[in-house]
């Protein structure tokens, strides 16, 4: 009610031209179309984010009605908590693997599918299959694959004369093992994105390049790759945000494991919140995850716009 | 553009106020409906036990519903790990289940301290039917907040066939135990199966060793903070003995990476690859479900005595589960009370003992199952019963206990460091 009154008050202040009025109408129309989406967005995204930040300033066990306001105490504790730094470090490895392994792997698979080889359909199913499986199933499957005594991976290693590795039991092999699975599971996602983008590259560009005497490698670097840059940027954003949020695969493959070599922010947050009854501290971790993801995305976007401007000028 | 932003903000404000209104409406209507309904009543019950234990609960619910034809009980099974998360969220909100199961101890105490549970002390419950120590597990400040049903004892399960083929007698003392491990290793069998990824299976060793080294007072004094310490030399020694077992290759390789629920440790037992496993009595149930043939060659023995230890070798470790509690937000507390009475009745207890391979916390139950008979005798003969640390301690300290023990097994922490970390945290929490 109050808001509606204010909306009608607003234009009175500066009704100067008809143009403005029209613009206002337009804005309202846009907003009315957006309302439903905005409503859902507010309910499920903005409101939880806001409450996370509010909780993060409280000492709260998650069940009591009373929350004690503690200011930045949770934050100062977080920054002196070695588990946080360990988890953050692991998350950065994850981001690294996502961006520098998953995306190139996805691109490679997309290129294979885009070339005219036999069995393309079969390959596309095989490539895409891991992404279709539920993460819990994938995690368990690989736990058996990495089994120290009966696992196929160790058996294969033994067959070529390498000693068994206690994959998930030791550091750093546990982290490496999970990262391998991450890459295996999520590379197909980027493959689909790149496949769609590859289809969108006009054939004429290749023809023109061919006429200029470019070979296949040159075609890739001077036609394909530049055309894919927008998709590479959005993939990196997805990869960075996605890997900061990761939880399930680590949870299945290594337990919650806070304070251990495979602890990540997601599992750390879960444990503090739901196992240790520290909703406030858990929210602080969640809030930091949000801030880090936000900063990373902003950085990527800024780099992108700088690149665009450079290209525009030259 | 600026105006657009202002408008956006306003729309947001409207949306939020609408949301708030929605929320209020819902709760008020809920309250009314329950007041009016004297006839059809639904009780929600949450638990975490699949398989035969669930069958036992369902049978108890059936009996309860027969007595109360107007009541429907809606049981909900939520698997172990998700259970804690769902319960915390539900108890914080307004949708808590009327009746729910926990493990008692420090976990349940969080809810009790937050005023979310019905105080059962003076309710219509015949307390004489419960085993005293088990009831203590859900009693805080002399107030009872939960009724126990099962007591899962922790002991070694072993493969009789392998023992016999290698001329090994059931070890009574720790040195005999170590000697048996050596013999088994020579026979190309993993002496002990361990899947320690969830961290509690390894914690059993610390708990038992500390008890055998220094007796039950070590934990009790440290826990009650009256002169004891988690940095007690018994804990340091226990840590050293765990690492000694690791150094002797007494366990299967890669144990810290194996999830227990996925079954890799049990599989090693079933396939004669490993000879012993320290596990809860629930393993009996697993065997019957997964590999019944194994029962013929399965034997049990208690954690061996330590030659130079102070602990009484009849001391046994056991976990109470499930413990039934009623949430304060329940609108049918009287019915809920009758339901938990039924869930811990002699009849339910008898079913539980016969079907789950686990002793019960209820007196007057005559178990037919051989294993349950043995376990029950151990409980009755025990000088003291040690409940698992991770259920007794406050959640934060419990977590640290599991984590440090896990690191002891992985040899990424020394026994002294682990003990000191525990004591530091305990002292810190005591101050709060």
Automatic annotation (TrEMBL), chain A:
Cellular location(s): Cell membrane
Q: How does it sit in the membrane?
A: Multi-pass membrane protein
Q: Which organism is it from?
A: Mesobacillus selenatarsenatis (strain DSM 18680 / JCM 14380 / FERM P-15431 / SF-1)
**KW Membrane (keyword) present:** yes
Q: Which SUPFAM superfamilies match?
A: MetI-like
Output this protein's name: N-acetyl-D-glucosamine ABC transport system, permease protein
> Where do the ABC transmembrane type-1 domain residues begin and end?
88-303
Carries keyword Transport?
A: yes
Q: Where do the TM regions start and end?
A: 28-50, 92-113, 125-145, 176-200, 220-242, 249-269, 281-303
Name where it mostly resides: membrane
**Source organism superkingdom:** Bacteria
Q: Which InterPro entries match?
A: ABC_transporter_permease, MetI-like, MetI-like_sf
- What's in the keyword line of the UniProt record? Cell membrane, Membrane, Transmembrane, Transmembrane helix, Transport
Record Pfam families = BPD_transp_1
Q: Name one GO cellular component term.
A: plasma membrane
Automatic annotation (TrEMBL), chain B:
Phylogenetic classification of the source organism: Bacteria, Bacillati, Bacillota, Bacilli, Bacillales
Q: Which UniProt keywords apply?
A: Signal
Note the superkingdom of the native organism.
Bacteria
The protein's matches in InterPro entries, at most eight in alphabetical order, are given as: Bact_solute-bd_prot1, SBP
Quote the protein name from its UniProt record.
Answer: Xylose ABC transporter, substrate-binding component
- Which stretch is the leader sequence? 1-20
Q: Name one Pfam family in it.
A: SBP_bac_1
Q: Which organism is it from?
A: Mesobacillus selenatarsenatis (strain DSM 18680 / JCM 14380 / FERM P-15431 / SF-1)
């Amino acid at each position: 009610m109050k808001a509606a009154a204010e909306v009608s008050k607003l234009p009175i202040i500066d009704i100067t031209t008809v143009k403005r009025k029209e613009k206002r109408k337009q804005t309202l129309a846009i907003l009315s179309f957006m309302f439903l989406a905005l409503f859902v967005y507010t309910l499920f995204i903005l409101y939880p984010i806001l409450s996370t930040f509010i909780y993060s300033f409280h000492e709260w066990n998650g069940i009591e009605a009373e929350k004690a306001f503690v200011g930045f105490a949770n934050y100062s504790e977080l920054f002196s908590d070695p588990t946080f730094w360990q988890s953050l470090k692991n998350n950065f490895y994850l981001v690294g693997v996502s961006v520098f392994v998953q995306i190139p792997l996805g691109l490679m698979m997309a290129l294979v599918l885009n070339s005219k080889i036999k069995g393309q359909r079969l390959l596309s199913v095989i490539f895409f299959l891991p992404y279709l499986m539920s993460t819990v199933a994938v995690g368990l499957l690989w736990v058996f694959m990495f089994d120290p005594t009966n696992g196929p991976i160790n058996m294969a290693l033994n067959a070529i004369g390498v000693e068994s590795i206690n994959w998930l039991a030791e550091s750093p092999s546990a982290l490496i093992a999970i990262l391998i699975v991450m890459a295996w599971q999520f590379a197909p996602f980027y493959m689909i994105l790149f496949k769609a983008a590859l289809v969108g590259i006009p054939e004429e560009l290749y023809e023109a390049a061919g006429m200029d005497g470019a070979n296949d490698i040159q075609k890739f670097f001077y036609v394909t790759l530049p055309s894919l840059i927008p998709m590479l940027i959005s993939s990196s954003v997805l990869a960075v945000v996605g890997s900061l949020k990761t939880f399930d695969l680590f949870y299945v493959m290594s337990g919650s494991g806070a304070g251990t070599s495979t602890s990540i922010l997601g599992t750390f947050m879960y444990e503090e919140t739901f196992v240790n009854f520290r909703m406030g501290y858990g929210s602080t971790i969640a809030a930091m995850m949000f801030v880090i993801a936000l900063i990373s995305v902003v950085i990527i976007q800024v780099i992108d716009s700088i690149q665009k401007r450079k290209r525009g000028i030259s | 553009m600026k105006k657009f932003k202002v408008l956006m903000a306003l729309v947001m404000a409207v949306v939020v106020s609408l949301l708030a209104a929605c929320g209020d409406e819902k709760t008020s209507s809920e309250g009314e409906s329950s007041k009016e309904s004297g006839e059809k009543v639904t009780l929600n019950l949450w638990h975490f036990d699949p398989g035969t234990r669930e069958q036992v609960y369902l049978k108890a619910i059936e009996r309860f519903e027969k007595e109360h034809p107007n009541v429907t009980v809606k049981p909900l099974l939520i698997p172990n790990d998700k259970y804690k998360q769902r319960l915390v969220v539900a108890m914080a909100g307004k949708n808590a289940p009327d009746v729910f199961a926990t493990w008692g101890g420090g976990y349940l105490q969080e809810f009790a301290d937050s005023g979310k549970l019905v105080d059962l002390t003076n309710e219509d419950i015949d307390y004489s039917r419960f085993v005293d120590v088990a009831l203590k597990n859900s009693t805080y400040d002399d107030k009872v907040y939960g009724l126990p049903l099962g007591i899962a004892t922790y002991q070694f399960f072993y493969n009789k066939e392998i023992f016999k083929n290698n001329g090994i007698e059931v070890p009574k003392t720790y040195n005999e135990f170590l000697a048996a491990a050596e013999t088994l290793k020579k026979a190309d069998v993993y002496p002990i199966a361990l899947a320690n990824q969830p961290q509690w299976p390894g914690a059993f060793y610390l708990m038992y060793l500390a008890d055998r080294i220094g007796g039950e007072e070590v934990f009790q004094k440290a826990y009650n903070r009256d002169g004891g310490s988690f940095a007690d030399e018994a804990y340091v020694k226990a840590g050293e003995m765990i690492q000694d077992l690791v150094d002797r290759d007494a366990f299967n390789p890669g144990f810290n990476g194996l999830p227990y629920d996925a079954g890799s440790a049990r599989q090693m037992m079933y396939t004669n690859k490993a000879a012993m496993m320290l596990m809860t009595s629930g393993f009996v149930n697993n065997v019957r479900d997964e590999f019944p043939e194994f029962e013929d060659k399965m034997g049990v023995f208690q954690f061996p005595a330590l030659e130079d230890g102070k602990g009484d070798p009849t001391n046994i470790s056991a976990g109470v589960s499930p413990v039934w509690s009623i949430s304060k937000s329940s609108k049918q507390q009287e019915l809920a009370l009758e339901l938990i009475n039924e869930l811990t009745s002699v009849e339910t207890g008898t079913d539980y003992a016969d079907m789950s391979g686990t002793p019960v916390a209820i007196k007057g139950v005559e178990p037919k199952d051989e294993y349950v008979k043995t376990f029950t005798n151990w409980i009755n003969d025990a000088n003291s019963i040690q409940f698992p640390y991770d259920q007794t301690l406050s959640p934060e300290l419990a977590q640290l206990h599991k984590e440090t023990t896990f690191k002891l097994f992985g040899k990424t922490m020394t026994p002294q460091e682990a003990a000191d970390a525990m004591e530091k945290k305990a002292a810190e929490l005591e101050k709060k």
